[in-house]
Amino acid sequence: MAHTDHPTMRRALRREIAGTIGLLTDEHDFRAMRRYRSFTFDDHTTYLHQVEALLKTRASQGGHTTVALFDPGEYADYCAETGLDPDAPASRTRFTAQLASTGPTVPYDGRPLTDLVPALVDEAVRQATWEYASTLLARLGDCAVCGEDIGRAAFSRASALLVRILDTAPPGDRHLVCSVSATPETLVAVLRADQDGEHTRLEEAGALEFTTVLALGIATRTPGGLVMRTTAPGTTDRVYGWRLRGEGLAPLTAGEVFDAYCTDVDSGDLISPESDVDYTEPPDLGEQPPDHHH
Predict the structure, then answer these.
(1) What pairing do the DSSP bridges indicate for beta strands 277-279 and 237-245?
(2) Would you say 66 and 106 are in contact if contact means Cβ atoms under 8 Å apart?
(3) Does residue 185 sit in helix, strand or coil?
(4) What is the pLDDT of residue 264?
(5) Where is this region: Disordered (predicted)?
(6) Which of 125, 118, 127 is nearest to 23 (CA)?
(7) Hey, which residues does 225 pair with through a beta bridge?
(8) 22: which strand partners?
(9) Residues 272/262, Cβ–Cβ less than 8 Å
């Protein structure tokens, strides 16, 4: 009977396990967790160094690790709802496991935490933006005139507009920004659409968020706009855009695009325009507005 090397098998199996680590990205969240006696770290910087060392070790052993944003407030609520003791490592493990499927995450790809943390925070903002916009869309209910679900109709309209925008864009990689003046603050969605030959590659989650924010602007007739930048080898970058108008998009003039692109969103101050960038009018989308307005 053949002898089986159990330690070797365990090492092989360990490489098959995909792990998730919940990361406390800032000092405020770290201090909130220190109220639990079982959380033994004293210093946030030391904690981040230890996490990074663990991630590097797992990667060197062939393991895949997902990094999730650990929110102490959400953790406390989770423990209250599930009856778990919040001052127990096992509870934190269970909460982190749930984050892997529901919360904002990024895969560890070897980059330093100083680069990974901003990416994780950006992902959290994206997810919160999508959830907020989706909630507002769902609350709009049905049209009093035709009975159609207003949010669903606006999402279909936004999807069709995005397809037309990408179809009419010049060759190259596209970077789109959609902003809608929602309350309490403006919602912003960003989408990259890279061209690979004749095919356009879209990141599914980013496209969903972008379409949802655009749909919210359409459904609520809220002031907003959409700016596109295209980049291709050997050509000048092109920047153009539209403003939201009713259930459609109205083209911005080259001057309006220049003003929008060269103004700081927070301060309102002018930003120096980039060289080798052509601020221009958008192509004709060639689409008709819907017959019925909600």
Answers:
(1) parallel
(2) yes
(3) coil
(4) 66
(5) 270-294
(6) 118
(7) 179, 243
(8) 68
(9) yes
Six-digit token pair at 185?
């603050």
Of 69, 27, 23, nearest to 44 by C-alpha is 27
Other CB atoms within 10 Å distance of the CB of residue 134: 18
Closest CA to 180 of 134, 213, 137: 213
So what's the pLDDT on residue 9? 59
Q: Which residues pair with 229 in a beta bridge?
A: 175, 239
Q: What average pLDDT does range 56-72 have in this prediction?
A: 88
Cross-strand bridge partners of residue 256: none
The band of 3, judged by pLDDT with boundaries at 50, 70 and 90, is very low
pTM to 2 decimal places: 0.72
Q: What is the mean pLDDT of the chain?
A: 84
Least Cα distance to 239 among 223, 256, 224 occurs for 256
pLDDT of residue 172: 87
